[in-house]
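Q: Here's a chain of 267 amino acids. Please give me its 3D structure as tokens.
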Amino acid sequence: MITLTLEAQPEAPLEAGVITPENLRGKSAAEISLLPVAHGNETAVLGDFFSVKKDGMEGVLLEGDLSRLKNIGAGMAEGKITIHGDAGMHLGSRMQGGEIHLWGNSGDWTGAEMTGGKIHVRGNAGHCLGGAYTGSRQGMNGGMIIVEGNAGDEAGGLMRRGLIVIAGDAGEFTGAFMIAGSIIVFGNLGIRAGAGSARGTIIAFRAAELLPTYRYSCRCQPEFVKLILQEIQRHGLSIADNYADGFYRRYSGDFNGLGKGEILIYE
């Protein structure tokens, strides 16, 4: 395992996109220490901020307050990153595969435009979780994001595929302009959820204020919800038994657009 321990807190945001399993694999601790990073508008190396240790085990472990580090695991396609501490913006953005396990909070744009893999945040996440960057036509396009705490605004914006699970509360505009995929919120669902969505599913387990462009459709027991909840349990979250077997009120929308999205609210 490659262990990076933060020894000196960056004074400015640190662009840490070099920290991916495939980029570090095969390099000695000395070589890893010399990998370039952008520190504000200056060029630095990882060794200016981290101590580096390497043993024979697989994986990458980061330790310390990394809230000023951006792009950790960005674009990664394989392997595993474990972080003990907070992480900054763009964690796992555009990742294609592998796993990121964070014991802390993550910044904005966590998992933005990812196409595969898994991100598991044991704390809170910032805004635009699994969302799309400005000017892009699609957000998350595959994979899974689990947040055990709360998430900010615009989670799953322009989402096309994949699964986002938020165990706590979600902010405003959750699933805005969704194209497909599923978002599950166990806490409070913020206002304007599903605004402009074409397709996709949002599942909430508490009463929520919906847009007037969503219409009540029916009362149902969707079998696919049970399958999704079983999948979530396999990833370590505890789910109440009555959620799988209970009834949901289905609302269709957003009828400002195509109107083939749905919001399911547990009774």
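Q: Can you summarize the key feature?
A: The chain is about 10% helix and 30% strand.
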